[in-house]
Design a protein that fits this description.
alpha+beta; Fructose-1,6-Bisphosphatase, Chain A, domain 1; 14 strands; 27% strand; globular
Length: 328
């Protein structure tokens, strides 16, 4: 059911076209460097472009998931204020180039992504790993549990989908730390789709399993990316759980300053991203759900999804921009 309150009206002002421009601009900037093997350069131009567009919006935005701490990132750092300051107070989670390695190698599923929510509605996630599990819409609440075994989660998905486990596919980051998880999934008879990078996209795949072939996302990845993925799931429907993974007491203490009082807490979807959330993603390279940026003569084509949680609306925007002209 749509949430009808004053916060929703705030987000209406920047709905659809405005947020799409932000990810479109970042995606186009990064796409000009895809396949060049320079991750840092591609990421930097995407950051520059996204920041420029954000500062044109009539919002009073604060970056809560960004490029890192201020001393690590000169722009779009955590705590940076963006926008004209003449609009609603919003928390912003972003990744100007989700999958920097993917873009540098011109491989599938690199994205420019961003999420808006009213102040205090996104988890201020520290830059640590998060154990994650996610499925798309259509399953009974409680179908998956981060504390269950892979076999139990896969069996639950198969049962409610009405198929054998052999017809279930799990998306997992291709990392040495996931060797046992991958083996456990395969031992159940389920398929595995390994991805080299970009676990925001990996979670989003679950929202349209008929198109992507992905039923469940499992494994560990960045906590900030977990919040971005949760924002997308809030808009499209689905279930997700996450638990922060700390390597040291220093990390636990740092997280406490960001409001994480229980280092062992399991966060559900609405604890990661609550209230009215808006999410946008533009393809940088071709992917399972979004086409990458196309350059044709003096025209540039982009493919973007814009989603909103309070209405459940998913807009697909295919736009053509003239090279050198203002995005509009």
């Amino acid at each position: 059911m749509a949430e009808n309150n004053s916060e929703d009206l705030d987000l209406d002002r920047i709905l659809s076209i405005e947020i799409a421009r932000v990810t479109e601009r970042a995606a186009v900037a990064a796409a000009k460097l895809r396949g060049r093997g320079d991750e840092k350069a591609a990421d930097q131009v995407a950051v520059d472009a996204m920041r420029t567009e954000l500062n044109k919006l009539n919002i009073s935005g604060t970056i809560v998931i960004g490029e890192g701490e201020r001393d690590e990132a000169p722009m779009l750092y955590i705590g940076e204020e963006v926008g004209t300051k003449n609009g609603p107070e919003l928390d912003i989670a972003l990744d100007p180039l989700e999958g920097t390695t993917i873009c540098a190698k011109n491989m599938p599923n690199s994205l420019a992504v961003i999420a808006f929510a009213n102040k205090g509605k996104l988890l201020y996630a520290p830059d640590v790993y998060m154990d994650k599990i996610a499925i798309g819409p259509g399953y009974p609440e409680g179908t998956i549990s981060i504390d269950a075994t892979p076999a139990e989660n896969l069996a639950a998905v198969a049962k409610h989908k009405g198929v054998e486990i052999g017809q279930v596919c799990a998306c997992i980051l291709d990392r040495p730390r996931h060797a046992k998880l991958i083996a456990d999934v395969r031992a159940c008879g389920a398929a595995v789709r390994l991805i080299g990078d970009g676990d925001v996209a990996g979670v989003i795949y679950t929202t349209d399993s008929e198109e992507t072939g992905i039923d469940i996302y499992m494994g560990t990845g960045g906590a900030p990316e977990g919040v971005l993925a949760a924002a997308a799931l809030r808009c499209t429907g689905g279930q997700m759980q996450g638990r922060l993974l700390f390597k040291s007491q220093d990390q636990i203490d740092r997280a406490a300053t960001m409001g994480v009082s229980d280092p062992n807490k399991v966060y559900d979807l609405t604890e990661l991203a609550s209230g009215d959330v808006m999410f946008a993603a533009t393809g940088v390279t071709d992917g399972d759900m979004l086409q990458g940026v196309r350059f044709k003569g003096n025209a540039i084509s982009t493919h973007t999804f814009v989603m909103r949680s309070s209405t459940g609306t998913v807009r697909e925007i295919k736009a053509t921009h003239r090279e050198g002209q203002k995005f509009a």
